[in-house]
Amino acid sequence: MTGQSNRTDDTGDGAQGTGGTVRPTENTHLDRRGAVRARWTTVLEGWKAVASRYALLPLRLFLGITFVYAGLDKLTDSAFLADTGSGSIGETMRGVRDTSAVPALVDLALRNPTGFGYAISIGELAVGIGTLLGLFARLAALGGALISLSLWLTVSWQVQPYYLGNDLAYLMAWLPLLLAGASVLSLDRLLADRRRIR
User: Fold this and answer.
1) Residue 122: how many CB atoms within 10 A of its CB?
2) Taking residues 27-48, what's their average pLDDT?
3) Quick one: which of 168, 150, 157, 165 has its CA closest to 100?
């Protein structure tokens, strides 16, 4: 009898039996789940930090490449830089003069359409290069915003509805770079780091 009672205690579901071994196993699974969750949380937080740091880089690359391309395209197009003729800057300005938001700005451009065409082209090229290199990035973004603003108020002002005009979208796209500058992968950052070391 006493032997049977002892065997029951050894193999039963009490604290010393099978029930006693289940609890540590469940705790081990819970510990592992907690560790996995903590690991994934750490990875996610790290990814969020990296994503936040590089968030403006795609916009910077897009605007930089687009403005370099636009500047080179205009500078190599003799028809665009002409005072008159199809596709010329002069013809474009005369075409939008009466529908622009600021006709005086168009009149200013019409005094020397070729000079205005060169100014826009070289300005776009300088802005694009500065943006890509991250050199004087806020100044480049300001230049890009001013070019986009002037084109919106003149060339694309008459576009209806307004959201079909791309110059307004470019103007809005420059504003985050104007506010934030180029904090990563930029010459501005490299120069700032060098000044700090000295």
Assistant:
1) 13
2) 81
3) 157
